[in-house]
Amino acid sequence: MIGPHLVKDRIKSGHDRELVRSYPYRSACPSTLWGELVAEARDELFFAGYTDYFLWTQVPVFSDVLRRKAAAGCRVRFLVGDPDGEVTRNREVVEDAALTVSARIRMTLRQLGELAGVVEARFSASADAVNHVSLSVFRFDDSALVTPHLASLVGHDSPLLHLRRQGDGGLFDRFAEHAEELWERGVPVRE
To answer: Are 184 and 132 in contact (CB under 8 A)?
Structure first.
């Protein structure tokens, strides 16, 4: 007979059922997972990372996929940081990376320019930028990939959580609501 404490220790219950998998680094998450989540989404794709540039390297022919998704009725949104904002400049000093934060954002803006009229895009409001730069939320209908950014590490070196919504008020909802708040206060991307 298996004791109830052994079952409880091995089977997820409550809100932790929403945690599908965790990765110690975003870069440890297989690119195939990103592609699968994008492909499976029908209603909502929301990329609320501060730079989002890496998505074009994770998902083959990403722009074409987004065009098809949008044409099929999927809402596609991007929330990025302001490449000229104070938080961006401060983050560049903290990261001290050869590929600067502003350069990564500008790479995304170039791709988004080619998707004008297909996707929605906003900058996080300057008052929210410090909250945005520290947490990336990527939503695919009822699944999400979330990266809490650690200290001076770049996004690919920070942890990643794969979440799947199981009910109201869980981890998925809390992160999704955070991203929605940032979106609501965001400002349109300058052409």
So the answer is: no
Each residue's pLDDT tens digit, 31-61: 999 999 999 999 999 999 999 999 999 999 9
How many Cα neighbours within 13 Å face the side chain of 92? 18
Q: Please tell me the total count of domains within the chain.
A: 1
Whether 58 is in a domain gets the answer yes
pLDDT tens profile 52-111: 999 999 999 999 999 999 999 999 999 999 999 999 999 999 888 899 999 999 999 999
By three-state DSSP, how is residue 94 classified? helix
Neighbouring CB atoms inside 10 A of 41's CB total 20
Report pTM: 0.90
Residue 165 placed within a domain: yes
Question: How far is the CA of 131 from the CAs of 32, 80, 107, in angstroms?
Answer: 28, 12, 22
